[in-house]
Every structure is written in C-alpha cells, then in structure tokens.
Amino acid sequence: MTTPRTAAEDRKAIRRYYEANPLMVSSPFGGVEGVQGELLASVLERLGIQVQGRAILDVGCGRGFTGGVVESLGGSYTGADLVVSRAGFRLAAADAQRLPFADCAFDGVFCLDAFEHFPDPYAAAREFWRVLKPNGFVFLSAPNYANMAGVVKAWCETVGGYTPHTWAPFRQWQPQELEHFLTGRRVRNVFRRAGFEQARHIGYGPETGLGLCPWMAHRRMPEWALFRLQRFFTGAGPAIARMWPGASLHGFWRFDVAKGGR
C-alpha cells in the first residue's frame, strides 16, 4: 500500500515535474510560447471582469505571458509560481498556499489552469481571499471532470494503470503531476468556504469534445473518427457549452469576495 504524500512532498513533486517538463502546460489560453490574448480578453468580457486600473496577481503564472494581456487592458501585473521560468514583468517564486504578499494588496487574482495542481485547494482559496481587497474578484480557469472525461479519469486511476491524481486527456493522455478530480460543485464549495460568492461560470465550446469524448486525444484514436468528431463538436460545441457549461473540459469562473466578508 502506497503511503500518501504530505503537502510539502506534493509541492516538491510538482516543482520537479514542471522543471523537467516546462512545455507541459494544459490551458485553453496557451502559455508555453505565448498566450491567446483575444480569447483571454473575450472571456474576461463575458465574465464582466474589468482590469483597467486594477492590480492583478496571477497565481500559477507559468512564464507570465498573461501579463502582456493585463497590461494591454490597462491593469498592473504581478505573477507568482513555484517555478519561475522566464524573465520579464514582476514574477515571484511563491507557493499558492502561502503567498508572500500583504493582506488586501490586489484588486483581482487570476488562476489559470493551476488550481487543480495545488495540494490543498482550500488553503489556496483562503490565500486568494486574504490578498484581495473588499471588492476583489478571482478569475479561475480549471478542468472540469463532471462529464465523460471524469468517468474515464476515475476508471483509469482505479483499474487503468494510472496512479491517483495523474490522468488527464492532454498530450495523448500523458500522466500529470497532481491532477485533482475537480468538478463544478467542488470548485463552488471550496470558494464558498473561503469567503467568496460565485458571480458567473461559463463553459468553453471548443472543448466540449474533450469533455464528452476524451478518447479524441488518445494516440490510438483513428484519424477518420477523430476528423468526424472534430467537425461535429466544432459546429455543436458552442451551443452545448451554453446549455451545459459542465460539458466542457475546462470551465471559466468569476468569484467575488462575499459581501460582508471583510
């Protein structure tokens, strides 16, 4: 029987993994060689998030490419990550569960496809709350496994040869380091307990295919089947995501500091 790792051991394992795999970024917004600025700006608009004149902390920032979008929209940017792999902007080596910033230091916290890797998501959410001003917000992008991808993840990590918290349909099902089984319900509960209220949640149409048919990303998927599925979800994906945001592999969230929470 394998002994569960401590939170400190988890953090060390995550740091080693991303130092060894700097290109292993699984986000709709990119992040390896740049960021899809137009997509990011459009999602912010749909969630009603304004960054002009606001101080933004990007937790789990990777190479910090989001900073270019924030500054182009008139905000100020600070990035924080366990592994700082790029010079430029204000990037700090930091643990999301113990942020080295003062209380009420920021207007907004971005956390783009890093939350699922935190050993203690609740501790991280509480830190987000601590560093935010009373009218602050969190912009979260995170995988969602309350769909067929979650069924496959549970099966693979139980009997399919993957150790717990490692399966994800990225890079042909390459094992991840600490890929928590997140669902919309769990995300809402974590942030509610931390002192936030949900403002909005939207899905991402282009990823309904991976959410409902994660075999699309498997290396053995026949090309003829992949082509037909891609064509179907390209047309139907946006409508599916509007009706059922949880069908998308990734979800985009806005949480506000709860009124009376400070």
Q: How would you describe the overall organization of this protein?
A:
By secondary structure, this protein is of the alpha/beta class. 34% of the residues lie in helices and 19% in strands. It has a seven-stranded mixed beta sheet, with helices on both faces. The longest helix is centred in the last third of the chain and has 21 residues.
Short description:
The chain has helices at about 5-20, 35-45, 65-70, 120-130, 150-160, 185-195, 210, 225-245, and strands spanning about 55-60, 75-80, 90-95, 105-110, 130-145, 195-205, 250-255.
Give descriptors for this structure:
7 strands, 262 residues, seven-stranded mixed beta sheet, alpha/beta, globular, 34% helix
The helix content, as a percent range, equals 25-40%
Terminal residue distance = 44 Å
Mean pLDDT: 89
Low-confidence stretches: none
Evaluate the radius of gyration. 18 Å
Structural class: alpha/beta
Strand content: 15-25%
Strands side by side in the biggest sheet: 3-2-1-4-5-7-6
**Mind summarizing the main beta sheet?**
7 strands, mixed
String of helices and strands: HHEHEEEHEHHEHHE
Summed up, the helix count is 8
Question: Secondary-structure map with pairings?
Answer:
Layout: H1 7-20, H2 37-46, E1 55-59, H3 66-72, E2 76-81, E3 91-93, E4 106-112, H4 121-131, E5 132-143, H5 148-158, H6 184-193, E6 196-203, H7 208-212, H8 223-243, E7 250-257
Parallel strand pairs: 1-2, 1-4, 2-3, 4-5
Antiparallel strand pairs: 5-7, 6-7
